Amino acid sequence: MACRVMEVLLRVLAILLSIAGALVMAKDKQDTFVMLGTVPVPLYARHSYVEAFVFLVYANGIVAIYCFIAVLLSLLAKSRVLAGLLFFMDQALAYLLLAAAAASTEVAYIAKRGEKKLVWGEVCSNFEHFCNLVGVSLVLTFLSVLVLVTLAILSGKRLFGHPPLCAPPSTPPVHQGV
Question: What is the extent of the structural domain holding 129?
C-alpha cells in the first residue's frame, strides 16, 4: 500500500512539474526595442519562434496527460501486464522529455552565449526576462525527467526485483505448541 501511495504521489509531482514547465514556456514572451542609429527597431521573442521550445511544451503536456492516466489506472487496476506497460511508458516518456529538454537547453545556451564559429551573437542581453523564464521552464522539465526516471526504476524493481519491491511482507509461520 505504501508503494502505491508513493507511486501516485510521484506521478502527481510529475504532472505538476510538467504542467508548470509547459505553462512557463508557453506564456514566455518579451517585446523590446534596439536603437539603430536614431531609429528604434522592435524585437520580439516568443516560444513559438523556436521549434525546440514548442517541442518542450508539447512533450511536457504529453507527460502530464500520461501521468494523469497512469494515476487512474494504478488506482483502479492491479496486474502484471499493467505494471509492465507502466514500466515501458515511464521510460519512453522520460526519454521523450529528456530529448525535448536537451534540445531546448542547446537553444538556450546559444541564445545566452552565441556561437562564435557560426558568427551567431547572443540574444539574451536583449531578452533577459524571456531567457530567464526559459531557464525556469528547463529546470521544471528536468525535475520532471528525474521523477519519471525514479518511477521507471521503481516500476522495474517491482517487476524484476528479487524479492519484488512492495511485495506484501511475509509473515513467519506460527508455531503451535505440542
Answer: 51-160
